[in-house]
Write a structure and sequence with these properties.
Elements (H helix, E strand, L loop, with lengths): L21 E5 L2 E4 L4 E4 L2 H4 L8 H11 L13 H13 L4 E7 L2 H18 L7 E4 L8 H5 L18 E3 L7 H11 L5 E4 L3 E2 L5 E2 L2 H13 L3 E5 L23 E4 L11 E6 H7 L18 H16 L2 H20 L4 E7 L2 E6 L10 H11 L2 E2 L6 E4 L7 H17 L3
Parallel strand pairs: 3-15, 5-6, 5-7, 7-10, 10-11
Antiparallel strand pairs: 1-2, 2-3, 4-12, 8-9, 11-12, 13-14, 14-16
Helix pairs in contact: 2-9, 3-9, 4-8, 6-7, 10-12
């Protein structure tokens, strides 16, 4: 057993794998207590956008920590939150007029689901069924698990999960998905929640913008709320600020987290249309939106988010995304010709490939072997079963990207099914 008393997430401690101690970070580099430099090839679980310890964000955190560290947000406000809300309103689709703060991707999804159900309840048309896309992942709280893929992730908690309508992931031209969604929407569900363009934890599964646009149109015709979970895909990961903008889609409710602070602090928001807000607006206190956490809109986290928004506003972030995407495509082209490599794909700055194996999926027996190889090579890559993906901070240089490609090639040639 480990000498530490820490219970780590998504970690089977019984395997006895080492748990490196990281002391500091900068850019794309993580530095360990035993003197190693590790390349962060997955943005520390998809959160670090501009690089670790970005000076503008660090300075914003430092300044705010000495002025106002925490404030109850029920009936009170502060300048950092106001700056973030104003910045989001300027950046995000104009139809999304309201900003509700929370503190993680899972809670932003919980908020979205409650907003959707509250909208229908308070407008006198109660609806309760939620539609989801097959292989989705939306978080690990009860509501978020309920709208995610059922399986090893949540099997022990099945008694707590509510029933949902599952729409099949697109195959071929996506007709299977559109026909199933059309049929399900005829029964007047409350909402359809989707990860736009890329299903993250499901294995970096990708589908085209035109299909997202077609799904959104079906929801619109049937008056079904569309919830876009852009917790992972937002803040540039797919090459644009939001993935949904590539499809010309404006969701009714939008979930944002991870990169909202540049990856420096936990913070999330759920943005909604004005009529969803107005469904809860009343002189009747029983119709208020009953959701909060102690650290809702924490001022320090909001200061970090405001700095991130300023970086997006004042620096050529989109140019960096385009450059990184092109370099990652070159990486994929190199790896695509290796034996046993399949389904090579990219969306913006997310590059992925599968290793051909008889036991695919998250519990593939290849995953622990790959994880060990990558760790020993001082590259932070965390395969999703037999899927290897690269999602680095946008500041990664050519040398580090080449090193990542070298390590993946070594792994592909070494670890055979």
């Amino acid at each position: 057993m480990s000498g530490s008393s820490i219970w780590h997430p998504f970690t089977q401690h019984g395997l006895g794998d080492p748990v490196p101690l990281v002391t500091h970070a900068q850019g794309t580099s993580l530095y360990t207590a035993d003197g190693r430099r590790v390349i962060d090839a997955i943005s520390s679980w998809w959160v670090t956008t501009h690089g670790h310890c970005h000076p503008r964000i660090v300075e914003a955190i430092r300044a705010q920590a000495g002025a106002l560290d925490q404030l109850i947000f029920a009936g009170w406000t502060h300048a950092p939150a106001e700056r973030v809300a104003a910045g989001l309103r300027a950046m995000m689709p104009a139809e999304l007029t309201r900003v509700f703060f929370s503190d993680s991707g899972s809670t932003s999804v919980e908020v979205a689901l409650k907003m959707a159900l509250g909208f229908w309840a308070h407008t006198g048309r109660p609806r309760s069924r939620i539609l989801v896309l097959e292989h989705s992942y939306h978080g690990d709280t009860i509501g978020a698990m309920s709208v995610g893929e059922r399986g090893v992730f949540n099997a022990p908690y099945e008694p707590l999960l509510f029933d949902v309508g599952c729409i099949p992931f697109p195959t071929g031209d996506g007709t299977n998905t559109l026909e199933a969604l059309e049929a399900a929407c005829r029964d007047a569900p409350a909402a359809f929640i989707v990860e736009p363009l890329v299903l993250g934890a499901g294995g970096m599964m990708m589908y085209p913008p035109a299909l997202l646009a077609a799904m959104a149109e079906i929801c619109r015709r049937h008056n079904v709320l569309l919830i876009a979970d852009e917790v992972m895909t937002g803040w540039g990961r797919t090459g644009t600020l939001l993935a949904s903008e590539q499809a010309g889609v404006v969701p009714d409710i939008l979930c944002l987290a991870k990169g909202i602070t540049g990856g420096s602090m936990p913070l999330a928001v759920t943005m909604a249309r004005e009529d969803i807000f107005m469904a809860h607006w009343s002189t009747d206190r029983a119709k208020m939106f009953f959701h909060s956490s102690s650290y809702t809109a924490n001022p320090i986290a909001c200061a970090a988010a405001a700095a991130n928004i300023a970086i997006w506003r004042e620096e050529p972030v989109l140019d960096r995304l385009a450059d990184l995407g092109a370099r990652q495509q070159a990486l994929l082209d190199r790896l695509a010709v290796l034996p046993g490599v399949a389904a090579v794909r990219r969306c913006g700055t997310i590059a992925a490939l599968d290793l051909e194996t008889g036991d695919g999926g998250y519990m593939s027996s290849l995953a622990p072997r790959l994880l060990s190889l990558f760790r020993e090579a001082d590259v932070l890559l965390r395969p999703l079963g037999n899927t290897i993906y690269v999602m680095p901070p946008y500041c990664i240089d050519e040398a580090d990207l080449a090193r990542i490609a070298d390590v993946i090639e070594m792994a592909v040639l070494t670890v055979r099914p």
